[in-house]
Amino acid sequence: xxxxPSILSADFGKLDEEIKHICDGGCDLVHxxxxxxxxxxxxxxxxxxxxxxxxxxxxxxxxxxxxxxxTFFVELFAPFKPEYxxxxxxxxKHPHRLIQKIRSYGIKPAIVLNPHTPPSAIEYLLEDLDxxxxxxxxxxxxxxxxxxxxxxxxxxxxxMIEAKNLDVLIEVDGGVNDKNxxxxxxxxxxxxxxGNYVFxxxxxxxxxxxxx
Length: 212
Ligand code: DX5
Ligand code: ZN
Fold this sequence. Notes:
By secondary structure, the chain is α/β, with parallel strands linked by helices. The protein has eight helices and eight strands; from the N terminus they run βαβαβαβαββαβαβαα. It starts with a strand and ends with a helix.
């Protein structure tokens, strides 16, 4: 299992130190939650801070957009060369065009599904994606309770990916901890995002290890 700690739960007063700490602690990706106060009822960070995050990180960035104007934000964050940019299918009229745009920057495109959105919503986009991110909480805040129905959804999505013989990763985001990670692995999940679980631990390294 790959682990992407969400810096939403980090101490922003010492963000540089927090990022070094998770990277030295063995994380695979640094998950960056971008919220605009419109698509979700919360606001987080923009390019000034993401630039500092990219500088501090020794692992690739995984940018999760929770915004209304995806194209604008893709253009804003592309210069920081993240490994992935993911956008919500619920907020995009032209997902295929946006996938192509993300790829044109040399960035891997990913689509996010909210808890209510079925995998069939992206059936004909799957072959153009590198990753699908399944929300296991309602987007907007860290520290929420894991929604169990994501387990069945991950299994359905894994079967769809295999039926099409594709190489698409499945990532799950929200309420992940050492109790539910095993079931996620069994369901076919490749990467877990963990905010509260990692950043509330006394040892980030041990928390990351326990998820792996
Ligand atoms: C929620 C964010 C998540 C969040 C996960 O909108 O997308 O990445 O930070 O935090 P935890 O692991 O605390 O649920
Ligand atoms: Zn996220």
